[in-house]
Fold this protein.
Amino acid sequence: RSPELLFYVDTTEQLFGQCVLLSESKTDGSFLIHHFLSFFLKAQCKVCFLGLVQSFSHYSTVAREKGQLVFFEGLRNSLDMLLPESDASDAEPQPLSFLRWPSTDLRNLFDFVNSSLSQSENDMSRWASPVLLIDDLSVLLSLGVNPTAVLDFIHYCRMAVCSKQQGNMVTLVHNEDDLGDEDCDLVLHALTHQSSLILQVHGLNTGYCRDVHGQIQLRWKDKFQLKRDHTHVFQYKVHDKGVSFFAPGTSSAVL
Amino acid sequence: MAIPVQSMTGISNARLNVEMNTTSFQKKSRSKLLSIPGTRPSFQNGQLLVSTGTTSLDYVIEEDVFDSYSHMLLKYFLAEGIVCSHSFLIASAGEHPDDILQGLPAPVLDDVPKDEIGKINQRRENDVSEESQDSMKIAWRYQNQPKVQTVLAASSRFGHYYDASKQMSAETFESAEYYPFYLPAEVHLKYSVSSNIHIGYIKLLRFIQGVIHKEGFDRACPQSKTRNILRIGIHSLGSVLWGDDICCKDDPLYAYSLTKFLYGLRGLLRTSLSVCMVTVPSHLIQNKAIMGRVTNLCDTVIGIKSFNGSEKDANDLYKDYHGLVCVKKIPYLNSLICELPDTRDLAFKLKRKQFTIERLHLPPDLSDTVSRLNKQDLAESSKLLRMGCGAAATGKKHLDF
């Protein structure tokens, strides 16, 4: 595991009511999702994970105790919406109902998140603050959701999770910056403004390399805007069981 | 021609997860081993590997301009399925699936007995080790670079060779379980479609779902039926023939139809024992953002650029090859990493009996009087890269300038 990343990110007093943005471009940043998922589960937080792009077994994490992790498997649920059995509308509101009725917004998805994370009396004593993890938000845009609806959804989630319950929210957005995907650019810019910790993962400009998988930039925003943002840049290589971080240009393959 | 699974199960490190693993970054070993002919477990992520891919995987091939080589790749993919006795599904809007079936290349049956194969591999390894004796004079700094290993020798006959000039005989594919989907012949749907996804895609999705469920590829079937892999080949998805307009307009009406279809397809693949290869005419898609979204929704994306009719034909570097292979995305399934190739600059050539994908490298630029690393050396160092992105390219210690 990476001591540097832990130092800059995982100080628990700092991660309290925070909105974290993970952005990936030209590479795969899912190792960050794995990191945050296991980090929060180990910290005894109750986690609601919207896994929209991979099946559950991909994340290969099982929560410590029953009820700690609420995993929403988007892929499985989508088929009921895309290929409905009958014409009649469902009795219960479905989280991915926007797939079936495109003009609707993400209200149902938010209701799902809210009900998963709202703490009952029992919950409050068992778990630390709730966490919402989303992998990945740009898929919603690919499926035809309006960017405004996506931003509304994020806003509601932030209010419910970060403000009301002092929980944390971690969102992954995938954007290839040179493709001119305006919807995605819009969402990414808005989230960049709203988030207090931003981890940007970028493939190397020089192209694919076996020993250095990419570059990661961490940006901590000062809450009260009194100081300048802390920014750190590392390069990284993903291994079987973890990730190693090093200063740019100091990969072990080069030294 | 199916690979005997016995040779694979002897490997002690084989890990296969049928259910979920435990903590993150840790792979759990299971004693249950699904033995399906033509597959082997991957050591990295516990998935079943099929030659040309992993199950539950979605391959997208960006077509070359005349759809010649991408069509070839699709045929190889399907032919491999027949040879391994997998079931397969062909979906097409233009050519009838039966015609595609007729045009599959014939497998090259090897009459070479097993010990011969061992000898051939041994000989190759000897060649490689002789090379290492010559020390390098000018570029001595690179002497210590590790040699790239021949993966082919280690993994013993996974994948087959096909003769592109011969067609597969009818007896070979008669016994295979084959599910064709030909869009113009499909009947009208009963239910109204309100999810704003093009009706052709809905029909195809329903059809695939039906096959998966009926034939039990989604593991819902009882143990009595032997499990098999379903290979799905979809030709020219997104083209006008499917009714989609992303190839005609910059601001299409059905902008999200293809991505919704791919999302549904991904859901189906992840919950079943199937692999899918799709070819997409990406050069026709006007809006680049759409292709970006498609790439994001697929596991592996490979672009094929053929040199047919382009000025690159004249370039010396490319004269041995028929085109370029550009690996745009590699899958990260069930693990943090994937099998990484050394480089993503690859080129391909289609010979009668072989579709070869090689590392693209510049031969050293020597003047005419000195003998250069000639074609013979290059040919020796080429290796058949299986159609998935998994295998690393091999070769001698070539320097990439």
Notes: DSSP finds nine helices and nine strands in chain A. Residues 220 and 226 of chain A are 13 Å apart (CA to CA). Strands of chain A lie at 19-25, 45-51, 69-73, 128-135, 168-174, 197-202, 214-220, 230-238, 243-246.
